[in-house]
Amino acid sequence: MHTPGPWEDWKNGFIRSIGRKWAVARAFMPISGCKKEFEANKKLIKAAPDLLEACKVALKRTPFPVGHTRLKEMLEDAIAKAEGQG
């Protein structure tokens, strides 16, 4: 189970769920101190609920031809990781 999005920038590198003000995450500054990497991490965290939903929809609606299951495996793996099963 995860906190649904959308997420927004909050303060001091934290982001929070707009729907649940108590749900807060933090993108830490990498050891390199690279601000671009830090900002990219925040964007990825904020996009995670939407990415998970997109994976689930794609898995249900995509016809996977016999012998072409790599995309299906990738979607299943991504969903399992996001849900703590992988």
**Count of discrete domains:** 1
Q: Helical amount among residues, as a percent range?
A: 40-55%
The largest β sheet comes out as: 3 strands, antiparallel
**N→C terminal distance:** 14 Å
How many β-strand stretches?
3
Number of helices: 2
The general outline is elongated
Q: Which spans have pLDDT < 50 for at least 5 consecutive residues?
A: none
What's the gyration radius in Å? 16 Å
The succession of helices and strands, N to C, reads: EEEHH
Structural class by secondary-structure content: alpha+beta
Question: Strand order across the biggest sheet?
Answer: 1-2-3
Mean pLDDT: 79
Question: How would you describe what is shown here?
Answer:
- By secondary structure, this protein is an alpha+beta fold.
- It has one domain (7-82).
- The protein has two helices and three strands.
- A three-stranded antiparallel sheet has the order 1-2-3, covered by helices on one side.
- A hairpin with a 6-residue loop joins strand 2 (14-17) and strand 3.
- The longest helix has 27 residues, at 35-61.
- The two termini are 14 Å apart.
